[in-house]
Amino acid sequence: MERSQQYFESNKECYDLVCKVKPTIDLYLGDVAYLTSTKQQTLGKYRDGVELHIYWRKPESGPKSAHDYALLFVKDDKEGCLVQRMIKKKRKYLELPGTNYSSDILTAAIKSVFGLSNVLDIRGLTVAMYSPNSRLEAVLAEQPSSQKIARKEFILDFEGEPSITSQFLRFLKPGCGITLLKDTSAEVIHEPELFDHNIFRCAHKIKLHGWKVGMTDDQLVQLAADNIYITAPHITSRAINKLVREWLEGKRLINAIELEEVQINTTLILQNLDPTAIMQFKDFLKLTSYDGIRIGVEPTAPVIRGPRGFLMVLTDANHCLLTDPYFDN
Fold first, then answer.
1. Which Pfam families match (predicted)?
2. Which of 106, 128, 174, 310 could tie 202 with a disulfide, CB 3.0–4.6 Å?
3. Percentage of residues of the chain with pLDDT beyond 70
4. Residue 2 sits in which domain range?
């Protein structure tokens, strides 16, 4: 903690930021290689660099207007790094004169994130890197678990090994949503114990795009999330049935739980449910003023009525979607 605090106090860019912004912020940390083509026209020469964007909202600006304070971490000629502020003018990013530090790029950027966490409320953190490596794991290992770098939303967009995910979990507050993105065809996460972690169990949202997971039935029903998207070949209708029963009993909130490549049997999903609570989609339409999505929904698709409203059960060969018909994702 002390080392991180000292680094933060010595980082003029971070200090200037604290003097200007409101307590709640969102962060984006990523390789320059992830930049859009517009930015790359300006920053292409810094492809090995790292950018850190700090977003905050001022009450007078409205809820959808975010201010962006951007820092660029690049190599200097002394095996350290140069930290520069970036400003956007006429759709181009310009770099202001910066400050040199003895740390390497990744260490400086990560420590800046943890430095900010000492004095600001980080609502959401997005980390976008092509190859999270042993150096990143080493820097994270140096940080105390008492520091939390995301309260509401954590997004990891990367091309490396999934093991890096577990390194971040201890820095997330319980209840924080987790999204993992991989920009390739689905690969298997060979760490089913990852989903036994308390942070995964407590997350309000879990979305894993580009990954297949070895999650079991028991692990799925232990998740508290009301918004889930996973590709999980080992999940069966038994677990889905339990999710539905818990929802019907008022023990679970479900907004949208979407499961890909699962073992589906609609009869088993509806097994042991109160038959008077189940109707067909066509009857649901007659009963309500529903004007949401209808394309692709079979007239006979099950809709369940419970204490929390309605739950649609949409299935095909290896796909299942449990959703509140009025949920806006």
1. DUF3557 (PF12078)
2. 174
3. 79
4. 1-122
H or E element in which residue 293 lies: none
Cβ distance 205 to 176 under 8 Å? no
Residues 6+ away with beta carbon under 8 Å from 303: 278, 279, 280, 281, 283, 284, 310, 311, 312, 313, 325
Buried b (16+ CB within 10 A) or exposed e, 118-148: eebebbbbbbbbeebeeebbebbeebeeebb
Q: Considering the domain boundaries, does residue 4 fall inside one?
A: yes
**Residue 192 corresponds to which amino acid?**
P
Please tell me the total count of domains within the chain: 1
Q: How far is it, in rounded angstroms, from Cα 106 to Cα 127?
A: 12
CA 245 to CA 278: how far, in whole Å?
12
CB atoms < 10 A from the CB of 67, how many?
14
Strands (E), the chain: 24-31, 50-56, 67-75, 81-89, 92-95, 99-101, 121-129, 153-158, 177-181, 187-189, 205-213, 227-231, 256-260, 278-280, 302-306, 309-316, 319-323
pLDDT of 61-87, one tens digit each? Answer: 555 567 888 899 988 888 788 898 888
Does 164 reside within a domain?
Answer: no
- Residue 97 domain-assigned? yes
- Give this prediction's pTM: 0.84
d(CA 271, CA 277): 12
pLDDT at position 242 over 90? yes
Bridge partners, residue 54, by sequence: 27, 69
Please tell me the least confidently modeled range out of 44-53, 123-132, 318-327.
44-53
Question: Is position 232 within any domain?
Answer: no
